[in-house]
Amino acid sequence: MQLLHRFEDSFDVYFTGRDDGDARDLVSRGVIEKELSAFTDREVRLATVHQVHSGIVHVVGSGGPKRVEIELADGDGMVSSAKDVGLGILVADCAPVALSSPEGIFSAVHAGWQGVLKGVLPEAVRLMRLVGASRISAYVGPSVKSECYEFNGPALREISKLLGPSVVGRTSWDTVSLNLLESIKQSLFMAGVVQIEASDACTACGEYFSYRARKSPERHLMVIVPAGGAG
Ligand SMILES: [Zn+2]
Predict the structure, then answer these.
(1) d(Cα 45, Cα 159) in Å, to the nearest integer?
(2) N vs C: which end of the chain shows fewer Cβ within 10 Å?
(3) How many other β-carbons are positioned within 10 Å of the β-carbon of residue 144?
(4) How far is the CA of 199 from the centre of ligand 1 (A)?
(5) What are the tens digits of pLDDT across the range 45-79?
(6) Ligand 1: distance of its center to the CA of 41 in Å?
(7) At what angle are helices 180-190 and 154-163 packed, to 10 degrees?
(8) Which residues pair with 60 in a beta bridge?
């Protein structure tokens, strides 16, 4: 697991690579929590959701049993302000999105086209604001890019109707596709998030697990955690 992004709001975002193996296995063996605890120099519990391509976001509190992974119900996003919690999202081609705020409130979202269409990003932003977040910053992790992923039909029309024509992309073989990253940016813009950074990496043509490109059953994990050393 490697550092992928560092927010100015004192949050770090980590990502497991292909060399780390299937992240679901790392999660169930407790490897992620050990690494997070080592990186931050405090005991960190990992919270994950049972991802179902929905618009459901959970609020994760502090406390609870130590060294026990928090497995939440069905959902595709989590919001927390707990110092001892890391929020983890499993992905292959869908985009993992991390959100931070200066008030110490943070979020992790599983954003595929279905979640984007169901409003999972504005829901995470709404919950962050509800518990006191002001200026929210976003980081979008590696995902399948429009050049490598053919996508057309009623779903694309629905997404472009909701988020604008800029979400329509083209593949490198010149067919219509969805620009997932652009749709995520537009969804965040509409929710009032303007500070957005993103990874250039494409899971389909890069050194990643990709269901779309290679039918990989494995997953990567992106985790956002309060940075170490801040107390
Ligand atoms: Zn690609």
Answers:
(1) 35
(2) C
(3) 28
(4) 12
(5) 999 999 999 999 999 987 654 444 556 789 999 99
(6) 36
(7) 40
(8) 80
Q: What percent of the chain has pLDDT over 90?
A: 84
Distance of CA 201 from the midpoint of ligand 1 (Å): 8
Q: Is the backbone of residue 35 left (phi > 0), alpha (psi -120 to 50) or beta?
A: alpha
Residue spans per domain, the chain:
2-143+192-226
The 10s digit of each residue's pLDDT in 152-192 is 999 999 999 999 999 999 999 999 999 999 999 999 999 99
Joined tokens for residue 150:
């053919």
Sort strands 45-50 and 70-74 into parallel, antiparallel or unpaired.
parallel
pTM: 0.94
User: Near ion ligand 1, which residues have CB within 5 Å?
Assistant: 145, 148, 202, 204-205
Residue 147 CA to ligand 1 center (angstroms) comes to: 6
Question: DSSP letters along 146-173, please?
Answer: GGG-B--SHHHHHHHHHH-GGGEEE-TT
